[in-house]
Amino acid sequence: MTNRERVLATLGHQQPDRVPYNIDFTQKARARFLAYAGVDRLKSLENCLTMCSLEPANAWRETAPDIWEDQFGVQWNRSVDKDIGVVCNTCVTPDNVRTYRLPDPDDPSRYQALRDSLAAGKGERFVVGNIGFSLFERAWTLAGMENVLMAMVTDPDFIHTLLDRILVFNLRVIANTCRLDIDAMHFGDDWGQQTGLIMGPELWRQFIYPRVRQMYQAVKAQNKFVSIHSCGKIQEVFPDLIEAGLDIFNPFQPEVMDPVTMKKQFGRRLVFFGGISTQRLLPFGTVAQVKKEVRELLKVVGEQGGYIAAPAHSIPGDARPENIAAMLDVLQNQ
Q1: How many Å apart are CA 106 and CA 109, to the nearest integer?
Q2: Which CATH class is domain 3-55+104-332?
Q3: Distance CA 155, CA 143 (A)
Q4: What sections of the chain are H helices per DSSP?
Q5: Tens digit of pLDDT for each residue in 127-165?
Q6: Overall pTM > 0.70
């Protein structure tokens, strides 16, 4: 089977010849693994997914040392976290929420990387258009996390207006992307923490659910698959997400949801993507423990499809290189 065929089989809840997998690194983890294993090992990942960002050309610019401004005007301090950073300005308030200028969703450069990837030949690859920080995350990066959460209670009109403007932008990006020969759309939008939904289920259903449902249904109307990333313990809204049209859930953190239990409860309706512990196993486990746990995930969660194996997040900088190598040994030699 090709990598694309493996993913399509697992999406159909059929047993592929081997469980598809996808590995992503933070900058620090990549550098440490490169020093440990060499460039050839790093080049031989054979990821089953091709994730293409939907950001325009020159989406980021360094406005001061370690301060990077994104396409929305949000500034990120990357003095510590080189991959994402910490938001250090506030762009949107109740006073300018209706007039603040959002980027152009029709900018052709936004889709060029995806077009280039497709032109190289999709045959063996499952191609995904990726909208990061897609709704709640986009709102709080623009207006501030505390401001958004408080306004959900004290000024709901502000949040509805902000989320609606983001939704209109996203729907246009979805429409443009789904005209291309992609397989799926992936939405990044962390709603969870280790103990549950950040805003709780009632506010999630009031503010988030109606809009994600519109986005997912727009993708499904074009016969594409829907994939999301949301960190944290959010399984209480899995039924809502399934009803909205979700196909693939990531990152499937074993610290907050037991993989075997989730497979039993939702494994016929969701494909799980992730599951390999980045909080516990890769940084602190032994090589033997890594091989044992990854094999168990492939056997149990990967039975009859429904599983894309991966670390539960981009591999963090404290992951032991020998553990990363052990994980790859199991994934690549199924």
Answers
A1: 9
A2: alpha beta
A3: 13
A4: 3-11, 27-37, 39-43, 112-119, 136-143, 145-154, 156-178, 200-203, 209-220, 238-244, 259-266, 281-284, 287-300, 321-332
A5: 999 999 999 999 999 999 999 999 999 999 999 999 999
A6: yes
